[in-house]
Structures are given as C-alpha cells and as structure tokens.
C-alpha cells in the first residue's frame, strides 16, 4: 500500500491549492460540455484532421490459441492515429482498441494476458459474471514480464462486454493509453433473431483524447511516474478529439439497409448525447447486460462512460448519396461530431427488428431482502488539505467491506450522485433500474447519474462468492478513490 500513501500525500499537497479550481472547472464552464460531463477540457496542440476523412477501423476478432483459450499480449506500439503523426499506445496485442473476443454463453474460456508493458496491469472484463480471482481486482496486478490466466465462465446472456485496465490508482491513464477492447457474448436467443449481421454488425468504441504536438496522447499526470491526475483535472479528463475505434471522427460507407451498432462509451469522463443528422430514430435493442424485452426508439441517446447500447440504424430511410453525421448534442466545437456515415449504395436487406427480443424477468422491490444507500460525492478538503472522491464519505481502501450481500438474494441499492455526474458501475451483479423515469433499460451494470440525481437499482447477487468492487466509472474519480468493496457471502 505504499503507492496509496504516496497518492494521498501528493494529492493532498496539490489539492490544497486546487480544490476551488476543481469545482470551478467541473461545473462552471457554462458550456454544454462541462455541464453534461464532470471534467475539464484538455486541448490538443497537435494538428487535428478534418472530420470524416479517416475511414472507420473495425477491430480484429481474436483467434483462439487452442480450444477455448486465448492469448493476449499487452505492449506498447506506435500507430498512426492522426494522419502523418505517430502516437505511442499501450494496447492489447499492441492495438487500440484491442482485438475483439467473441464467445458463447455458458462456454468457459481462459484468456492468458502477458504484460510486456513497463508498468503493472490488471485486466477486468466489464459486465462479466466472473469468479472474484479472475475479475481483475485493482490490486491483483500482472507485473511487467509476467502473465496471468483469467477464467471466464460466461454464464450470462448474449451482450456487449468490454475488457480494460483496472490497475489501482492508474486506471485512468492506462485506459487512456489504449488498454480497452470489446468482448461479445453470443447465444441461441440472439442467433434466432433476424438482426443485421456479418459486415452489418459493427462495434463502435467512442473515446475522447487530447494530443500533444508530436502526436502523443496527452494525459495530465500530476507527476511523471506517480499516481494522480493534475488537480485541475480531478473531475475528469475531457479530450477535444473524438475517436471511434481509435480513429479521429471517422467515416463509414454503408448501404441503404439496416445496421447493428454496438455502441460503447470507453471515454474516461465524457458523456455523449448521440443524435443522427439528418435525424432518424436510433432503435435500441440491447443494454449493458443483453437484449431488451422489446426495442425502444430514441431521437437522441445519452451515453455515460462504460455504458453500452446495442442499436439498429436503418439507412434505407436516407437516399443513396446522403451523408449522415452521428453528432454529440453534449459537445461543443469539435466534440459536437462523432463520426459520419455515407450511404454509398442501395442494398437488399432481409433483416428486421422484431417486436419481442428477449425474455426479461422484471425484478420487483418486494424481492429485495436488504436496502442500502450509497452517496457518491467529493470528500474534503480535510484538515490535511486532502480532497478525494468518496462513497458514503469514505475513500477506497482494499480492506474495507461496505456490504455483504448473500449469494442468491436481491437487494435494493439507492445510488445518489452529488456535486457532478457520476456513472456508477457495479461488478458481478446485474441490476434493473426501478426509477419510473428510466423504464425499458433492461439489465444494466452501469447507471448514469446526473448531478443531484438518485436511482434505485435492484441487484441480483448470484454466480459467485467473494470480494468485488463497485465504483464511479469516471476514471479520474475512480483513481481518486470513488470505489468501495462488497463481499458476496
Ligand atoms: Cu469497467 Cu470496475 O470497471
Ligand atoms: Cu466491471
Ligand atoms: Cu464520479
């Protein structure tokens, strides 16, 4: 725990002066951007490309290295993200996004991660129902030069998961460097649906980054090699360049048919409100933890960090030749745009969006055997001058357990966000949001809370016993200790 002490000392010292600056930057910018996302905008000094000039990359699907076995190497690589410049990334197999893992429900796989980075790393399968020793607990590091086998039973419905770094105190900078990839679980229920597939089923990982003049990612660490983001970015790092699958404001040619997109917000802190221009509805078919009971049409789609939206866009509503921009209503300047589709040709389409997608057993409050309340708020500055982010007033410690749900039970948790928005993610236990204003969200693992917002969630604790974390998925908040442990007993 030496690093933790160090972080407390450095954070404490720095934030003595910075805590007022922090509240100003998190809420007072006056533009859309800082009202909708907790964070401070970091501007690139590199020349950014014209939007919609770089083609959308599709991450490669990882080939198994044996029956139900996969090998991934985490390493640094130099890649061209901005045309004409090189960016050093840290990537799974040296790519950003990492390779997509495709698995089947109930078919256990083992993924061996080798760490060829110069720093410790932890891998978490976000949204996975995973035994505790393979869940990527923040202190279960793979040392440089080491490797670790993660066992994933994947006994859960088809959905879009993602894997990413989860190293204590360093998740923000390490994910920012590129340590994130998709993991898709498929099953028979989904296979039986007439949804678009093959080349018309595309994962979209949305992130924001700032680039230094030489093309490198700019992440504002307080001190090189030490934990902690610079104090003015304590509320979150917002980049000014939007990347989709690692490419700046890319463009994708489509046919005038339906496409299925698995949207993931893998940004450290930025929230998006996605809308098509010219507008057509975005039809949601799935959420974090799988298919919805029935499709839901959205004119615009708010997406908080770590949330996934499985959606259908029907490009036959547009004329061939039409350019369709995926915009971000929460953005300003360059961050108003995400990517562009060009309807390049007509096409035949036998896909449909059925009225019924999956059976979802609704949980009811009467099933909850325990109620708990967790408030996510800024903590301090204390008399030591220390400010962190906290859950119920407590900064994260690996030794403190705040809840001990019993295996096989349902609990009601009231989650409350103070000061700024907090996207709250709970490991292991999928939940349903019971708030009447938020219907039809299906099974989730991350809930988007606006500042002052409260949500009640019904969690089902099944699968495995052991110690897991829940936390804010604004990665700067997470690194600055907005995280807590529960133990399933
Ligand atoms: Cu996506 Cu605890 O993480
Ligand atoms: Cu997770
Ligand atoms: Cu937060």
From TrEMBL:
Residue ranges of every copy of the Plastocyanin-like domain listed in the record: 77-188, 385-489
CDD domains: CuRO_2_BOD_CotA_like (cd14448)
Pfam family, one: Cu-oxidase_2
Keyword list, A-Z: Signal
Secretion signal, residue range per the UniProt entry: 1-24
Listed InterPro entries: Cu-oxidase-like_N, Cu-oxidase_C, Cu-oxidase_fam, Cupredoxin
Family: Belongs to the multicopper oxidase family.
Protein name: Multicopper oxidase family protein
